[in-house]
Amino acid sequence: MLNSLTSTELADVLDSVHRQSPELTGPLSMLDEATLGWTWRYPQISEAQQAFSRARHQQFPRTRTEQTWQEVVATAAALSAAFRELGDVRLERCAVPTGWGTCGLALPERGPYRGEQEHLASAAGLKAAQ
User: Fold this and answer.
1) How wide is the angle at C-alpha 78 spanned by C-alphas 74 and 84, nearest 5°?
2) Could you give the C-alpha distances from 52 to 42, 61, 72, 88, 94, in angstroms and in order?
3) Is a pLDDT exceeding 90 seen at residue 68?
4) What burial class does residue 28 get, using C-beta atoms within 10 Å of its C-beta: 0-12 exposed, 13-18 middle, 19+ buried?
C-alpha cells in the first residue's frame, strides 16, 4: 500500500508519525521499506532515509526510550521535508512477475535496472522447478 503513494503522500504519512504509538514498530518498518525504494531514483534523500531507518531500529522493546522515540519523530520530519522537495511525483516501479509476486523495485530514470539479474534468476528457478 505505501509503495503506491506519491512523494507528497509519503511526506504526509511521515508527518503523522508523531501521532502513532511508540510501541507499534510494524508501521515504522513498512514506512522504512517504502521510502528506501525512492533512494535509488532520488539519491538526495538517502541521508535522511538512512537516519530514519537507524532511528526506527532503536524502537524495539529492549532499546526503546523516550529519547529514541523523539529521534524517530525528528528523522521522520526530516525525511518528510526531503520528500516534499521532490514535488508531487510518483515512483515508477517494475511490474515484471517473479517467482514471489511482482518485482516492485524502483525503475531508474536512466541507466541499468538493478532488478534485471533477479528477474533472470527467478525465471531460471521457475524453469528448474518445472
Assistant:
1) 145
2) 16, 18, 6, 21, 25
3) yes
4) buried
pLDDT at position 123 over 70: no
88: helix, strand or coil: coil
- How many CB atoms sit inside 10 A of residue 16's CB? 13
For 30, the enclosing helix (H) or strand (E) is helix 25-36
What is the spatial distance between Cα 8 and Cα 82, in angstroms, rounded to a whole number?
Answer: 10
What is the number of other CB atoms lying within 10 angstroms of the CB of residue 72? 23
Cβ neighbors of 84 (< 8 A, separation 6 or more) are 7, 8, 11
Complete DSSP assignment for 1-26: -GGG--HHHHHHHHHTGGGS-TT-HH
Name the pLDDT band for 86 (thresholds 50, 70, 90): very high
Q: Are strands 101-102 and 97-98 parallel, antiparallel or unpaired?
A: antiparallel
Residue 65: CA atoms inside 13 Å, Cβ hemisphere, count? 4
